[in-house]
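Z., the sequence and structure:
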Amino acid sequence: MSLTEDLKKILETALPTDPSFRRIEKAAIDSCISDCRRYALEGFIEAFLLSGMRLLALPGNGHTRLIPNDAISVLPLRFVSVGRSVHLIGAAPGVTAPRGELIAVNGTALSEIEATAEKFLAGTRQRKRVIGPILLAWPYALAHLGFSSNDRTTEYRLQDANGQITNLKVANERTVPGATLYPKNEHGKADPAWEPETFVEIKDWQELGLSILLPSFFDPSEVALSNAISDAADRVGACSNKTLLIDVRGNTGGDFLLTMPLIDAISQSASKQVVVLVDKFTFSAAIVFVAILKHRLGNRLKLIGEEMGDGLMFFAEGGLLDLPTSGAVVRYSSAFHDWKNGTSDASTPPEITRQIVPAGALNLDREWVVRPTGEDTQGAFYQRVLKGVSE
């Protein structure tokens, strides 16, 4: 097989199915397809992947994108966006590297690199911040963007919490498989292999309130999530006199329909303030969860954290394409969602149309970003938030 077969799968399935491409001028699509085809015919995998990323980023729809993680090798460093900056928060086993905020790569300011890379990254500004850091550890991408060095190494300038600057130089040949440090569903945790141990974690902070951690709504079996949501709904019903803190930071989505019993319980039982913690790693079904709660609770719900990874108008559903020659994956959409105005179209599944509400704008009531350098343990952070709500 050749890369032309990979391109054929994209052109025959993703583009015709995805309604978000109908908004893009044909000339722009054709230009990107031409680049993809040229690199495919040349057999240049990394160039093909980047051109495919650019093609699928055209609609600005983060649910549609080429995910290169399984197909590339990266330097053994894990970069993650924290707030509006990028931090080195981990490394491959056996690699020692200083932790800190990334200031520059090969002498070029990070802001300049991010501006150049933007057209290869799909979705909103926040989603670009989530999926973009892999490019900083991908030697070919840095070279293609024009930011490589002349000595087959990559030098990173880092600043620690005390303001001390460190320069870290890594040989470009010292790579590891991309997916070992950059998961396809990026969650922002230091451990790239992190997976939730449970779908719901509840803790009673006595007079301060009740915290409910919801790390994921993705459950292929549907049973474990449904059972956990049911138990959480019962607990909320029994604690109607408590302030609720709901944490969906890092929740990349799944099936929001399975969470409706908890939404109903919160809407009907919560008599005090409801606080929801969100961040740029909050996506898809988790955003819908927040939107429905906001619509039902109004001013009783306070949103704390940072802007989420998607807006309220997006395209979703669809499916995945495995590209056998390159090893990459394509995510494509098939349905329109409008949780801002509460509208739908013919592509929206009926079961979702029945739930769509006009949530308006989900503006933060307070911006609060937890740094990766031990600012808070999770429990301490929850208590600080709950105390702030009660004051």
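The two ends are 64 Å apart (CA to CA). Residues 3-69 form one domain.

Let me know what you think.
H.
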